[in-house]
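Inverse folding, one chain.
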């Protein structure tokens, strides 16, 4: 499902080059729920962005659902993000002028779906994450946990091969975070979608198939 071999990534500001990932190797299998722990600046978000075709590795190999993404065209990376990858962000990234349903629909508009199917799927996934009765609410009418459920529905409604989540509980209180953790694990069991989650939340370790740690740009068990 995901195969990473000897991946390196640095960022350059002026004349200063800062290594972020150094010789990372990782295999993630279909249907796994993998958690990556790391402090801020350890490289975990960069790793997710490389897997998610948001950023490009300096060198190495990254294969997602059997397809190499290092060195391919920008147009092909956009196609990968569109069809194969769902992304959940810490701060929800919902558009405030759109309802919950419309936010999920927006994530589906680039797919080759009829308008009726887009609406049907948006409502279906919002109900799947416990938002029945709230689909026409705007983000400012929802709690933080409810907004994150909308973000999860938006990622899953594409029915991607992989969902990447960057600190999905980082902006939530402990009780709400626990509910989101359980929801993601339940959806993983139900759908078979592969989850890779970067987090500080230790509760996620208890539900993960595997827990990895990233320190100074190196990934360890």
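Residues assigned per position:
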């Amino acid at each position: 499902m995901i195969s990473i071999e000897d991946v390196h990534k640095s960022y350059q500001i002026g004349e200063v080059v800062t290594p972020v990932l150094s010789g990372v190797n990782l295999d993630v299998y279909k249907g796994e729920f993998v958690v990556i722990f790391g402090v801020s600046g350890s490289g975990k978000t960069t790793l997710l962005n490389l897997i998610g075709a948001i950023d490009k590795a300096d060198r190495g190999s990254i294969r997602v659902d059997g397809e190499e993404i290092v060195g391919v065209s920008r147009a092909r990376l956009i196609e990968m993000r569109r069809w194969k990858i769902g992304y959940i962000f810490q701060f929800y990234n919902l558009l405030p002028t759109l309802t919950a349903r419309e936010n999920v629909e927006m994530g589906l508009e680039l797919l080759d779906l009829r308008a009726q199917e887009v609406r049907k799927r948006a409502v279906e996934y919002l109900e799947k994450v416990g938002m029945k009765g709230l689909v026409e609410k705007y983000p400012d009418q929802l709690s933080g946990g409810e907004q994150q459920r909308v973000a999860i529905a938006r990622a899953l409604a594409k029915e991607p091969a992989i969902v990447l989540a960057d600190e999905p509980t980082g902006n939530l209180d402990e009780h709400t975070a626990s509910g989101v953790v359980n929801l993601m694990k339940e959806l993983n069991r139900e759908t078979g979608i592969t989850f890779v989650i970067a987090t500080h939340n230790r509760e996620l370790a208890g539900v993960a198939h595997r827990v990895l740690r990233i320190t100074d740009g190196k990934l360890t068990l």
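The mean pLDDT is 91. The longest helix spans residues 174-191.
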